[in-house]
Every structure is written in structure tokens, then in C-alpha cells.
Amino acid sequence: MFNEMERESLRLRLEQLNDKEITLMQEIQKERDNIYSKLRELDGKDVESPTINKKLSLINLAGATAQKLKQTKYSNQQSLPTNNVSPLNSATQTLHRSKTSIQREEALKILNKQEEGIRGARLRTEIEKGTGMKIKNMTTFMVGLMKHHPEVKKPYRGQYAIQNEKSFE
């Protein structure tokens, strides 16, 4: 039992690391795109000097090479099954999402439909029916869901519901 709990906590930590890695890669990509756009602006301004043109053409060549390398890297990543969320587009995002994140999304959809909550066993069968993936340990799954989405509560034993915050206005 303890071994399974440790395994689950390690798996959750790996998912957290994957999420951090993705956000870091996105930030680096944004900075790289900003640098390339600044270089393109400088390309347009510095047309007078032939020595600058020579240097800028080398910069353009390096940029094109980096772009090709990035494209081949992404195409190689797409061919391998991973648990990472790809920042490319929504079509590839569904291919690279983790099993748990897909199940969590389905659980939130089901819980949003239920005004007074739903029994854990029924929620489990509906999630499994909606995603086509089995949930090994429903309690652990729901603890993780409640950690990621604090609006999901467990008002009674075996009962789960989404509690919306009430404003005092």
C-alpha cells in the first residue's frame, strides 16, 4: 500500500516537472521569437552598408537553420508518444496530453453538470465511459483533482461536487 502511494506521488511529481519544462520551453521560445523579430527589424533598417548586409545575411542564415532544426525536432517529438503538452496547436495538444489530465477534464465536465454532486462510483464509471481509460484508484485520482481544482469538494463520504464561490455583494 505504501509502495503504491509513493509510486503515485512520484508520478504526480513527474507530471509537475513536465508542466514546468513545458512552460520554460515556451518562455525560451517567446524570447527567441522576440530576438528574431528584432533582427528582422534591423534587417529592414540597415540596407545602406554592404558589410552590415553581409553580417545580417549570416544572421538570417543562422535563423533559418535554427528554424529548420526546430521543425525537425518537433516532427521527431510528434512521432514519439509523450506525456508532454505540445505548445504547437490544439490538434497536437490532444496527442500529447497525459492520461490523467484528460480524465480530470472529463471529471470537471461531469461535475459541472451535477448541481448537487455525484457519488464517486458513478463518477468513476462516467469518466471511464467518456475517456475510454480506466481509473486504478479513484480516491487518489480525486485527491489530485481537488489539489489542482480547489472548487471540487467532497461534502460527504463518497460524494463529490463543485462548489462555486458565493459573493457577498
What does it look like?
Helix content is 70%, strand content 7%. It has 169 residues and is mainly α. It folds into two domains: 2-96, no CATH class; 99-162. Strands 1-3-2 form a three-stranded antiparallel beta sheet. Strand 2 and strand 3 (159-162) form a beta hairpin. The longest helix has 44 residues, at 2-45. The radius of gyration is 24 Å and the shape is elongated. Mean pLDDT is 78; it is low at 81-94. It comes from Bacillus swezeyi. Residues 7-45 form a coiled coil. Keywords: Coiled coil. Residues 1-43 form the Rok N-terminal oligomerisation domain.
Put simply, the count of helices is 6
Order of helices and strands: HHHHEHHEE
The average pLDDT value, as a whole number, equals: 78
Please report the distance between the alpha carbons of the first and last residues: 47 Å
Helix content: over 70%
Number of domains: 2
Keywords summarizing the entry:
single chain, 169 residues, mainly alpha, three-stranded antiparallel beta sheet, 7% strand, elongated
Itemize the secondary structure elements and their pairings.
Layout: H1 2-45, H2 50-79, H3 90-96, H4 99-113, E1 118-119, H5 120-131, H6 138-148, E2 152-156, E3 159-162
Helix pairs in contact: 1-2, 4-5
